[in-house]
Amino acid sequence: MTQSKATDKDLSWLIFKEGDYWVAQCVEYDITTQVRLLKEIGEAIEYAIVGHIAVSKEIGQEPFECLPDGILPGDLNIYFNSLAIMNSEFRGY
Q1: Residue 1 in domain
Q2: Among 34, 55, 74, 75, which lies 20 to 30 A Cα-Cα from 23?
């Protein structure tokens, strides 16, 4: 079975605490999920991605093609970009 180019993606996630919830916001696409316990965030991300792919296929669209790119709200986008820069400097890139 050949994997579709649209579903063969590396996605980055910004994970942060907001009130009583942990929120995972995808950097590349408008996909967000939340949980009460941090240990559940991986499963919630997987559920959100699989759900999006399933619905896309059901309505005859390629997964991710209908989602806006890079939808992080202003402050989160600045925060994520500063972390990416710090991370690359730390690794010596």
Answers
A1: no
A2: 55
